[in-house]
Protein: ornithine aminotransferase
Amino acid sequence: MTTPRRSATPSSSREHAALTGAVTAPNYAPLPVVVAEAHGAWVTDVDGRRYLDCLAGYSALNFGHGHPVLLRAAREQLERVTLTSRAFYNDRLGPFARDLAALAGMELVLPMNTGAEAVETAIKVARRWGYQVKGVPAGRAQIVVAAGNFHGRTTTIVSFSTDDSAREGFGPFTPGFTVVPYGDADALRAALTPETVAVLLEPVQGEAGVVVPPPGYLAAVRQACTDAGVLFVADEVQSGLGRTGATFACELEGVVPDVYLLGKALGGGIVPVSAVVSTREVLGVLTPGSHGSTFGGNPLAAAIGHAVVGLLETGEYQERAAKLGVQLRDRLEGLVGHGVQAVRTRGLWAGIDVDPALMTGRAACERLAGRGVLVKDAHGQTIRLSPPLVVEPDDLDRAVDALGAVLDEAGR
Ligand SMILES: *Cc1c(COP(=O)(O)O)cnc(C)c1O
Structure:
């Protein structure tokens, strides 16, 4: 066994990366950047180098690092009470849930912590709703999901992943899921049976590389679910809360699902906060003792989540994402055919397919980091861009310039 000596205090980026690599499980391959501080859209590493954060914690940092309103809400709550458990009430959960439900046009909120927990919760609720309300025979409930999905990392969720690296060695898997191609409404409709209780989809597939479905797809899914008496569960953990230029990505298609799953940005980048937001008919199938979470709905999370809802109520961030999204799309489209094979955008969110003749997505991310821009690759050739919604237009331009320079360097 080799454990680094306690006395060897790391100081440089290289030393921190080596220490972290030596003492944490190898389930990540981080870029060699060691962040020590961050404000707004900018992070500083332990060596004092500054980077524009164009990943924003996979959209958990939609409002940027250390947003003053969110920090104030967190600080004030830290001094009052941070955890009660749901064995008691706290004075933060009610106002948070009321305003989040109103923001979503729904009735009830079930607070959890991580996105995966929100997904797991929705699976349980949809199944129970199927048995109690729809009348599906016991143990027969089916949930239809899409190929290329990303809904989290639990055993049940990876059971219906189509990504081998997420599943290999983790079986046996949970039954009860049917996978259909993403973006094909006819295939989805054909997969619905009397035992189907829900369709679970991302309105834009984030981890798949910002895959935007064809126009009309979400509306057709909505109609198919309504016709078949099936719940439409929209996983907006990443697409929701401003990223796409609307509060919810479903809105852009004029679609209202039966259930929203929220997470990531709901915690303001400060604490994990997730939620299942739906109607009384759906969430009302739960009874005391049937589901829960030690930390879900804690007053610190609720205070921060409430402040996040407050930021979204003005529409300012959604508008900013829409406006900056046009700028981003226009700039990125200029790269297509010049080292970039395809670009997909939705608001301030982009998937960029780098020409494999030039370099891998990973290599592009490394070279961008060398130029002071942090992004993350997805599935080999794709780089995904999701800067904080507070990013300055000039900085956004500079990030695209840096990508152009990286492609030039590779001889596009
Ligand atoms: C990130 C993500 C999740 C999982 O969230 P965790 O907080 O990492 O568990 C679920 N669904 C989607 C669409 C996501 O992007």
Summary: The chain has 14 helices and 15 strands. Residues 44 and 50 are 4 Å apart (CA to CA). The mean pLDDT is 97.
